[in-house]
Amino acid sequence: MKQNGLEPNNFTFPFLAKACAKLSNLKFSQIIHTNVLKSPFRSDVFVQTAMLDMYVKCDRLADAYVLFERIPMRDVACWNVMLMGFAQLGFLDKVLRLFHEMRFARILPDTITVMGLTQASLETKNLALVKAIHAFGIQIGIDGDVSMANTWISAYSKCDDLSSAMAVFNGIEIGARTVVSWNSMIAGYSNLEKFLHALNFYKWMLCDGYRPDISTIVSLLSSCIQPDKLLQGVLIHCHGIQMGCDSDIFVVNALISMYSRCGDILSSRFLFDGMSNRTCVSWTAMISGYADKGDLNEALRLFHAMEAAGEKPDLVTVLSLVSGCSQTGALELGKWIHNYAFSNG
């Protein structure tokens, strides 16, 4: 562009910043920022906000905050970028401080502001704070926004307050509900192991003409964790096959975990052996299945195979083996696993 004698404008820079943010490319981000500082648009709030977002997406929150402090005329988008950056990293104190500064500056918060506040509050599962933020959202008139309602449903569910989540869900107009609305409720019941409630919501979802997605199936499978739920788990598996999502890696991992926890280790192994790409979650689910069954030899063999495949075991993997050792009284193996964990951080 420059070779042809053309100069970037206040629309070009934000597009370049967005591309760098998507790639998390810090080197090119800094080059673009340098060019912005040399351009007539260095004080343009639209361009500055794009630079801010670029640094946040590149995980350079400190650099982003330095830039934020230097922006003289900040609009709500500028505040939101910084607030969401802190929220995504769980810095609740910084999010709340920034929000108070924003209010002091007489900037009117919007949906994104409240989403950031809600997301940050979930790091501590602070139900009182979630309710306060919800009340504030109603006060400023954004409670009719379905994306905001979905956020509150998810927030209440994660705080184990399903009655409040249900109240928000019922407050969404029937035609305005999205798959995310349904999934948030199903996930909430599943996380509390309330399988029948989750299943009833799933049936209700189907009756209302909504098409489930991968998240729906994974949430339902995660609630089937007892041998008496095996049949229901198989039925959900069949639904996944009908939907064509049974080969999705998240669904397969959930199926491996479901079958092993319901006592059907052979079905778990069949799915595991059929995977072309395995993640740490895949290996851990299978290792955990054998460890829970008391077959420590196979669990340990898979553990070594996991390492040989270049997949690093995580804390959950190690704890699965430790649990198996505890159940079977394998003291020497337990000591070896402890030494392994200590040596490998």
Describe this structure in words.
The chain is mainly α and 345 residues long. It has 4 domains: 1-73, no CATH class; 79-177; 179-274, Serine Threonine Protein Phosphatase 5, Tetratricopeptide repeat; 278-345, no CATH class. Helix content is 71%, strand content 0%. It is built from 20 helices and no strands. The longest helix is centred in the C-terminal third of the chain and has 14 residues, at 230-243. InterPro entries: PPR_At4g14850-like_plant, PPR_rpt, TPR-like_helical_dom_sf. It comes from Prunus yedoensis var. nudiflora. This is Pentatricopeptide repeat-containing protein.
Short summary of the structure?
The protein is mostly helical and 345 residues long. The protein has helices at residues 12-23, 26-37, 45-57, 61-70, 76-88, 92-104, 111-121, 127-139, 146-158, 162-171, 179-191, 195-207, 214-222, 230-243, 249-261, 265-273, 280-293, 296-308, 315-328, 331-343. Keywords: Repeat.
Number of helices: 20
Task: Report the order of strands and helices.
Answer: HHHHHHHHHHHHHHHHHHHH
The largest sheet is: none
Number of strands: 0
The dominant shape is globular
Number of domains: 4
Radius of gyration in whole Å, from Cα? 25 Å
Residue runs with pLDDT of under 50 for 5 or more positions? none
Question: What number is the mean pLDDT?
Answer: 87
Helix content: over 70%
Terminal Cα span: 49 Å
Structural class: mainly alpha
- Proportion in β-strands: under 5%
